[in-house]
Amino acid sequence: MFSFFKRVKTVVDSELNAMLDKAEDPVKMLDQFMREMEADIRDAEAAVAKQIANEKMLQRKYEEAEKMASKREEQAIQALEAGNEDLARRALEDKKAHASTAESLKESYTRAKQDADSLRTKLDEMKSEYNQMKLKKDSLKARAESAKTRTKMNRAMSSIGGDHSRQGFDRMEEKVLRYEAEAETSEDLRSSSRSLDDELAALNKSQGVDDELAALKKKLGKE
Fold first, then answer.
1. Cα-atom radius of gyration of the chain, to the nearest Å?
2. Which domain of life is it from (predicted)?
């Protein structure tokens, strides 16, 4: 019934280590261990309740036997006072039988009470151990979840800037640089083309003015 203590030690020591070595889910396994402990406590509570009931039953019978012994003694006295010695003798014989029964029941009741008290103490110890394991379980679960989160974050961070990603970024950077170079080249070509067009337009404009100036001079006879 009280294999609980052995199981508690197993949880804390060997089974917990084996669980981690086998890469089992610590959170699920700890919950399973707690359920097993709870089942042990329920079994222990049932056993303690049964023992207490037995203790109370023996106490009641012991007290009834004592009362009957006392009652028969009083009745024996009444019989003697009434002058009925035979009835007094029979009352005393029955008192002796009840007294003997009471003595036997008292011993049984005392042992039952001691057993019940011992079981109560062990049950209290079990519950105390359970509460300690529950606190430890909560701590271990929190540590396990934290470790899982850190592992996920580390894996995510390690994937950032990895060879594949870095090569992809380098390739895209080269494309952007190429696009920028092409844009600058097209702007240079356009600028060059515009300058040539402007010079030719200016030349044509200059020639038109010169022709117009020569015609005006000729008209004024100042040529």
1. 54
2. Bacteria
Q: Can you say whether the dihedral through the CA atoms of 33, 37, 38, 42 is positive or negative?
A: positive
* Residue 81 to residue 10: CA distance in whole angstroms: 72
Question: Which two tokens mark 85?
Answer: 């010695």
User: What tens digit of pLDDT does each residue of 103-146 get?
Assistant: 999 999 999 999 999 999 999 999 999 999 888 888 888 887 88
Q: Is 35 exposed, middle or buried (0-12, 13-18, 19+ CB in 10 A)?
A: exposed
> Which residue, among 3, 106, 118, 127, has the nearest Cα to 51 in the 3D structure?
118
pLDDT tens digits, 24-48 = 677 788 888 889 999 999 999 999 9
The DSSP call for residue 82 is T
CA 120 centroid distance within chain:
30
> What is the amino acid identity at position 52?
I
